[in-house]
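Model it.
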Amino acid sequence: MMLTMRQAVTIIALCVIALAGYIGYLAYETRNLTPYEWGTEQYNGWMYAEGNQLTDAGQCEDTDGGWAEMGIETSVYFVSGCLDWFKSR
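Modeled.
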């Protein structure tokens, strides 16, 4: 059975739309890997601990003052999100 050009283009277009939807779904799900809402300070603390694979909860505190240089604003919420990452492991 031979497909016409129109059928082939339609099938390819549907596959591209389905793939884009699946990628969008995966992107949405990666935002929900934490118990916090995306964009909050607690979320940022959780993702900081996870992304940097911290080994000790003491690393959640900015002891040397270097975070300000990196543009990380520490707050009680940031630190609590970071500490909660350790509690979840």
